[in-house]
Amino acid sequence: MDAKRPSLFFPLLLIAVGVIFLLNNLEVIRVNGWEIVLRYWPVLFIIGGLDHLYQGKGWTWGGISILLGGAFLLANLGYLPLGGWDLLLRLWPIFLIALGLDLVVRERPAWASALAFIFILGLVVAITAFAIGQVRVPATAQPITYALPSDVREAEVTVEQPLGQLEISGAATSRNLLEGEITLPQALVLTEEAQTHGSTIRVHLGAAGSSVVFPWSLGPSQSLWRLRLNPQVALVLSLKSSLGNQVLDLSALTVRQLTSEVAVGSLTITLPARGNLSADLRNPVGFTTLYVPRQARLELRINRALATLSVPSDFTCVEQVCRTPGTTAANAELRLNLEQPMGGIRIEYLP
Fold first, then answer.
1. From CA 30, how far away is CA 288, in angstroms rounded?
2. Is the pLDDT of residue 60 over 90?
3. Average pLDDT estimate for 180-205
4. H/E element, 282
5. How far apart are CA 278 and CA 333, in angstroms?
6. CB 249: neighbour CB atoms within 10 A?
7. pTM (two decimals)
8. Quick one: 298 exposed, middle or buried, by C-beta within 10 A (0-12, 13-18, 19+)?
9. 312-321 residue pLDDT tens
10. Of 225, 240, 230, nearest to 154 (Cα)?
11. Strands of 62-141, DSSP E
12. With 0-12 CB in 10 A as exposed, 13-18 as middle and 19+ as buried, what is 41?
């Protein structure tokens, strides 16, 4: 009776982690901390599949693990229009199918395992192609416009977005407070509310629907909120996204106060060079990127727990407070509070 081969999972994991960090140190790839984990997690599937094959446990489960791990890795590296997590959320039932087939053919001849593997391979290719095809189908955007009353000087804009991407910029025409396009899946409908009180207008945008919307049923083009605001109006912004990305270009806007929350996803903000801005940012799990003009007087207070932090070399960081050169607690114009328990924080100067 043949001795059982020992598992190679841990040694292969050490080799893979070592190679990734070596390439990172040599600047062949440029990632850090949690970025490495969130980008290269599919390597675990590949290593698990190789270990399964090495121990002689059959081709079905091992081969599919390697195949799916490779697909997820390619997606995370940008070679597929879907991200790795998006692909995983679409293809996870294949693991159940592969496990069932593996149990069926485990004690059968090699040709049975080969047929099971070919079947799963064809299923993965077909479903992946179908999923990518869905992403490339353009969705219909709903235009939205709010005219600017002549006596309004300040606007409070609230956006509650369940999932997808929210983009904010300052490219609205002078006669409008807000204009843009909103794309929603069929299960959701846009909700709008606007009230004017003296020189202040309050606008609330959200989404409602009776059906449950799953993230893996959506492509990037099926939940996109692209809003342009008037740069001449003083703004108070409250933005909330449950799952997705916020891309906020504040460089041309007059934002007095910003509250931004992304439960899971990424937050990217381009800050203005001048003006008094107070912001509370919350991104529990994900990545936050701040683009800062060189002349900006920024004070950033960070509560980051396990999140990594990358700042320009001339920033002054003491405990949980980082400031741009020449900025003090007294002269700071941009005052940001960022809560980022897990993920990564990157601060860069604008070119």
1. 16
2. no
3. 89
4. strand 277-282
5. 8
6. 18
7. 0.69
8. buried
9. 999 999 989 9
10. 230
11. none
12. middle
